[in-house]
Amino acid sequence: MKPRWRFDLRTRYSVQIMLVILTSMIGLSLLSVWQLRTTASQVETVTSSALQSHLEQQVRERGLVMSEFLAQNLTNALLGLDLHRMRDELATTIAQRDVMFAYLYDEQGRIIHDGSPAIETYGEQLADTLGWQVNPGPAPQTRMTKTALHVARPIFVADEYRGGVAVVLSLEVVAAETAGLRHALDDLAQKQLRKELLYASIVMLLFLLGGALLALVTGRRLASPIRDLANQARRLGEGNFDPVVSIGRNDEIGDLASAFRAMQDNLANSQQAIQHLAFHDALTGLPNRAQLVADLENMCAEARAGSLLFIDLDDFKPVNDSLGHEAGDALLAATAARLRDSVKMAVAALESEEVDEFSVARLGGDEFTVLLQGTADRQAATSVANQILDALGQPFNIRGHEIFIGASIGIAGFPDDGDDAEALFARADVAMYQAKHNGKQAVCFYQPYMLDETRSKLFLMNDLRGALDRNDLTVHYQPILAATSGNVVGAEALVRWNHPQRGLIKAAEFIDVAEKSGEIERLGRWALEQVCNDLAAWRESGLEGLFVSINISSRQLLRADLPDLVAGMLSRWGHLPGDLRIEASEHRVLTQLDEVAGVLRKWNAAGFELWIDHFGSGAASFVNLRQVPARGIKLDPQFLKDMSSDDRTRKFVGAVLDMARTMNLEVCAVGVSSSAQAQWLSERGCRYLQGRWLGPELSARDLLQYLAEDMPDKRYVQLPDSRAI
Amino acid sequence: MFNRLSTICWVTLIAGLALLTTRPLLAAGADTIRDTVVMAAVGDDPQRHLNAMKPLAEYVGSKLAKLGIENVDILIAQNRDQLVRLLRDGRVDWVTETAYSAAVLEETGAAEILLRKWKHGVASYHSMLFVHRDSAIASATGLQGKKLAFQHPGSTTGYFVPRSELEKNGFRMVELRSVRHTPLPEAVNYIFSGSEYNSALWVHKGLVDAAVLSNLDWQNETLVPTVVKSDLRVLYTSAPIPRALEMVRSSLDPRIKAAIREALLNAAADPDASAALTAYHGTLKFDELDRASIDVLAQIRDSLNSRRIAREPAP
Fold it and tell me: How far is the C-alpha of A371 from the C-alpha of B283, rounded, in Å?
């Protein structure tokens, strides 16, 4: 949420400008007011003092004139003591506003008349301060006090001093006039000040308005492009890559806008790249899983018919392993190209034009998909799938190597096989596994049962965890007999799962699940522990010298640290490496020879005998076998099964035995089912025999029992020669 | 109009006063009825006199029309002697005067008293002789060798009447020219103060020993301030003297004399004359002389005669 109000750039700028103007104007106003006041005060002082001296001069002159006038008018009255005349003149004089006193006095300075009707001061001596003198000169005497002017003018008649007139003039008028002037000047100054302040205020107001306008305009010019940029950035942040609206500025803000535009372009490119990366596979450039899912969802949403081909390359891993990841990547890229081309050709070649859209995607690793939209017609899908198989069946030339791979393809159709993207995908995947299971280079359409199998595997996977916890697993042992003596010399450990609902489940059924779920490590450790325990138990029971064969799963075969771990565990139980024989399946060992050879040598080095299991079931060759530090091979049971009826198989087995002898490899025949077979194998140099007929799978305890019953010397059982082959 | 014409005429008269006094205005004899009556007074303020006399002149003039009098002109003489000459020449017919002047005019035979004038509403007044309250003078006899202030030589109550009284009582009267002069011990030394105020204040300030004022002036606060009056003591009061008198030329046509007399006697009762009387020195009415007034006037005439006889060089 945005705050309701904030100090944005424009406001801040405006306020600052206004403050500057306001401060300057107030300062100027104060200065001018101060100057005005000072000037007014000076003018007042100068003017009023000038006025005062002028007025005082006026009063003095007036006093002199007045006294002269009185003296002239009263000379006869003085001579004739005409009091009436004196009264008239003096009273008239005193009646004037500024005259405080007026006297006529005799030559002795005694008052003859003061202007009052009864002459109250008659005969009183005139004060010296009034300017009376005993023997005055003809000139009048004036004396200025703070409040009054005293004038005394003597009257001479025929050069004889006869008295005089004294006038006292008040200076109140002067003071009043001066005060009045001061007041007037003050008023004037006040008025001027008010006027000045008014002008200043008006000017200030105008400046403020102008300033505000200027600040607004400038602020807007400054802030609006920035605001535009901010809005652009906000939109950018929301993922809107619309082109930047041009700021049209040639200044720093213009530079900012350019930089911003460049950044936006870069961001848009990056975004595009990211978008592409997000929905495309970097290595092949094909759409990736996300894109496929999106396409599928889209298709399902639009309820268009379609087929999803799930393609998994066969035998891709060996290429990666043997030629390196770079070669693997090159192969994947080439595969992608061929896929694209072949699908295109196949779609083009379809008779019906129902496939209106197709896409090839890489899910990761060696998994690809082809989505055909428009029809779920199996014919069309099959035709495309076959085209793919053909294309991928051609050898690839990767860095000078001619490489053969193939592919397994599972197909699921929409909407018959699944009504949403997830289901469709999962079902095509299941179908692909089925194809692989069916023997590679195959195409398989989804069938509902496949999902059940897969589901049952999933249940197994879940159950397996609980089984290990609950100890539902047991180790059974199948006796291995020495062909020459017929004595039990060892046993193959076989893990069995006593499933609460399904009954006894063989290892082959859940080892794969264990490997996929990662439980194989735990399972392996548990089994080994069990074997060690059983060995110890047997030893305690006096059964010694019996070896136990254990199968190493494909995954565990890759663990280089396992030989030492196993050796350590054995030694903790007081067993020797010789007590254990390690069996690895021929397929695993010989197809991944480069990877496992080192590990095999470690097993050897740790003192373990290495046996190749299921020999002859795959593409094993003696050539490869030479490189394996194996002690021997275990013949696949299929040979013995076929041997009874097939002479060629018998000859082949004979040849294998010969060859093994030549290569100094011991042979253990598995699945021996008759005395004749045992005899034959024994004669042909087969060292060990194993089979249900010779000895069934038994628990450790049962095996002990079995051996005790069948071996009178408590150590070996006799070869059951009596039993007919 | 009559009034305006009359005014213009007498303004012309004033302007040509010198000429008027040197030749007869009319050649007609005393018994001839003219068409103009001339009213006169003595004074140095013609404007004041004119304002006072004009309304009454017009009023009386209107009453005289039946006698063929068309105008009553006004004439202000500079002094009594000039007035006497004008009367003798028949160029003035009607005069208003104080008792003393009236006596002087009557004595000349040129004019005769017609009626008493209640000037300022007063029928008569009298002289008062006073000293300072602290003065040792207890009676008029104490004035011997003292200084006495009179008002002025033309004053009836302020000079003539008291002097006559003093002379009648045998005092020798000597005039001092200045109040500052030393008095003669064997005489009553008199000085003309020139104003009622001077008389009162001189006594009050001890410049003279006594002074004389009319009772009207004595009561005037301006002339004798109360403060001053309280310090004064009245020594003597004269008999009542008519305040003012209306006179006519002795040789005036008796019909006109009678007509003027009748007009004046009736004026107080005539509302038309009210304003004219007020203007004419606040006159309340005109009446016949009573016995006392006749006696006083006779006494004044006697004094004038004895004074004329006694007029001899001052010592």
Answer: 155
- Tracing tokens 């030989």 back to the chain, one arrives at A563
Taking residue A12's Cβ as centre, other Cβ atoms within 10 Å add up to 14
Express each pLDDT in A188-240 by its tens digit: 888 888 888 888 888 888 888 888 888 888 877 777 877 888 888 888 777 77
Whether the Cβ atoms of residue A155 and residue A79 lie closer than 8 Å to each other: no
Long-range Cβ pairs for the range A523-527 (8 Å, 24+): A523/A464, A523/A468, A523/A473, A523/A495, A524/A552, A524/A553, A524/A556, A526/A468, A526/A473, A527/A473, A527/A475, A527/A493, A527/A495
Give the lowest-confidence range in A61-70, A89-98, A593-602. A593-602
The average confidence (pLDDT) of chain A is 83
Task: Round to whole Å and give the CA distance between A83 and A117.
Answer: 9
Looking at the partner chain, which of A82, A85, A118 has a beta carbon nearest the beta carbon of B228?
A118
Best of B198, B207, B228 to mutate (most A CBs within 10 Å, chain A): B198
A228 touches chain B (CB under 8 A): no
Mutate to test the interface with B, among A84, A89, A121, A122 (most CBs of B within 10 A): A84
**Other beta carbons less than 10 A from residue A278's beta carbon:** 10
Query: What average pLDDT does the segment A109-136 reach?
Result: 85
User: What are the φ/ψ torsions at residue B2 (nearest 5 degrees)?
Assistant: -60, -50
Q: Render pLDDT for A160-174 as a digit per residue (tens, 0 to 9).
A: 899 999 999 988 877
Q: What is the pLDDT of residue A618?
A: 64
The mean pLDDT value for A11-27 works out to 82
Closest CA to A339 of A364, A357, A362, A363: A362
Shortest CA gap A60–chain B (Å): 32
Contact B205 A123 (CB under 8 A): yes
CA–CA separation, A86 and A103 (whole Å): 9
> Which residue, A585, A638, A588, A594, is CA-closest to A612?
A585
Facing A118 at nearest CB: one of B202, B207, B225 = B225
Kindly report, residue by residue over A315-340, the tens digit of the pLDDT: 887 787 788 888 888 999 999 999 99
Q: Is some CB atom of chain B closer than 8 A to the CB atom of A117? A: yes
H/E run at residue B300: helix B291-310
B202·A83 Cβ contact <8 A: yes
- pLDDT tier, B19 (very low <50, low <70, confident <90, very high otherwise): very low
Q: Which two tokens stand for residue A377?
A: 């017609």
Phi, psi of B19 (to 5 degrees): -65, -45
- The nearest alpha carbon in chain A to B176 belongs to A80
Predicted confidence (pLDDT) per residue in B38-97, tens digit: 999 988 888 888 999 999 999 999 999 888 888 899 999 988 889 999 999 999 999 998
Q: Which two tokens stand for residue A526?
A: 């548990």
Q: Which residues contact A25 (CB under 8 A, 6 or more apart)?
A: A200, A203, A204, A207, A208
Give the contacts of B200 (CB within 8 A, at least 6 positions apart): B211, B213, B223, B224, B225, B228, B229, B232
pTM of the model: 0.47
With cut-offs at 50, 70 and 90, classify the pLDDT of residue A74: very high
Q: What is the rounded CA–CA span in Å between residue B174 and residue B185?
A: 10
Q: Residue A201: name the closest of A30, A36, A342, A57 by CA.
A: A30
Instruction: Pull the structure tokens for residue A697.
Output: 């799978």
What residues of B are in contact with residue A123 (Cβ under 8 Å)?
205
Crossing angle for the helix pair B291-310 and B99-108, nearest 10 degrees? 70
Instruction: Tell me which H or E stretch contains A37.
Output: helix A9-80
Write out chain B residues lying below 8 Å of A82, CB-based: 194-195, 198
The identity of residue A472, as a single letter, is D
